[in-house]
Design a protein that fits this description.
The protein has 281 residues and is mainly beta. The protein is globular, with a radius of gyration of 19 Å. One 2-acetamido-2-deoxy-beta-D-glucopyranose (NAG) binds next to loops.
Length: 281
């Protein structure tokens, strides 16, 4: 395993992936890194190891990129959600629970988070998340962060809902927006694995709070490099299979040379193509 140096920044610099990539392996690695950079891991989740890509599409916006800054108006109505398995060995059958919670600004770690959306019994058909036989515990309620409270992280998560799932006491249909303890809800209900997730940020007005310095923000890059290998700054052309590419605050590691795909070698580390989040379409 090779530890790669990383670029640190004081601002929420975007995680980067090659624009040309349409590789779910790369996208899985990217969304994992996003969750770490934005401190959703560990603020909200102790870990995040998705087996599918969650694509969230707001009318008038299109598919959001992880962490995309959106206005309250843009996210006022429920998005459509698609779920793409990481590979053909990932089955997406059965029931799923979709949740959206407000994880507040970076550095906020509260057991209680605001529940904006909670639906049990969603199903997936041709990658589309369907709610035709679902139960909305909390119907979609768009983000409404307090004026000046900073850029809140709205995290959308999809869990496998096993047949043993039981809605905990109090979680009946249409309970509306309120705070809850996500971890307790998951354990009390016997929820299954976290399958996929993404997030966006929404801010109102000018921030009057100091958001904690994001020392864990990394601009490590994952790029499909046809010829460019990250060999500067000690980052040799390390690459890893998706399973072994764990990008976390401070290091990116992978087994050298383990990953190649049809497009080219995946290079993790400094020296890859760096583009802005907005450009990661
Ligand atoms: C990405 O790949 C999938 C599966 O091969 C394909 O259905 C989809 O159209 C591709 N998307 C783009 C943007 O190329
Ligand atoms: C398929 O994806 C899952 C989740 O990312 C991963 O754990 C597994 O190793 C992958 N399997 C193959 C055969 O690539
Ligand atoms: C299903 O989605 C539609 C469109 O967003 C929404 O109007 C409806 O309330 C949803 N039903 C459930 C059970 O979530
Ligand atoms: C999915 O949920 C429905 C009720 O909404 C239930 O009848 C069905 O057995 C569940 N399927 C699985 C695989 O848990």
């Amino acid at each position: 395993m090779i530890s790669l140096p990383v670029l640190l920044s004081l601002s929420l610099l975007p995680f980067v992936a090659s624009q040309s990539s349409n590789d779910t392996t790369l996208q899985i690695a990217a969304i994992k890194a996003h969750f770490t950079q934005s401190e959703i891991v560990p603020d909200l989740l102790s870990s995040f190891d998705p087996s599918a890509i969650l694509t969230v599409n707001f009318e008038g916006v299109g598919n959001i990129t992880p962490g995309q800054a959106l206005s309250q108006d843009q996210v006022g109505t429920a998005p459509t959600v698609t779920v793409t398995a990481a590979n053909s060995s990932v089955g997406l059958s059965g029931n799923f629970t979709l949740a959206m919670v407000d994880a507040d600004v970076v550095g906020t770690k509260n057991a209680q988070v605001t529940r904006h959306w909670l639906v049990n019994g969603d199903t997936i058909s041709n990658d589309a998340l369907s709610n035709s036989s679902a139960t909305a515990i909390t119907s979609y309620a768009g983000p409404a962060p307090a004026e000046g409270s900073g850029a809140h992280r709205y995290v959308i998560l999809l869990y496998q809902q096993p047949s043993t799932f039981t809605s905990p006491a109090g979680y009946t249909e249409n309970i509306g927006v309120s705070t809850f303890d996500l971890a307790s809800y998951l354990s009390d209900s016997g929820m299954g694995s976290l399958i996929a997730g993404t997030y966006m940020t929404v801010e109102q007005g000018t921030s009057t709070v100091s958001v904690s310095a994001t020392s864990s923000v990394i601009t490590s890059t994952l790029s499909v490099a046809s010829s460019t290998h990250a060999s500067s700054s000690g980052a040799s052309s390390a690459s890893g299979s998706a399973a072994s590419t764990s990008t976390s605050a401070g290091s990116t590691s992978g087994s050298n040379g383990a990953l190649s795909n049809g497009v080219g070698m995946v290079v993790a580390g400094i020296g890859g193509l760096v583009v802005g989040l907005q450009a990661f379409a």
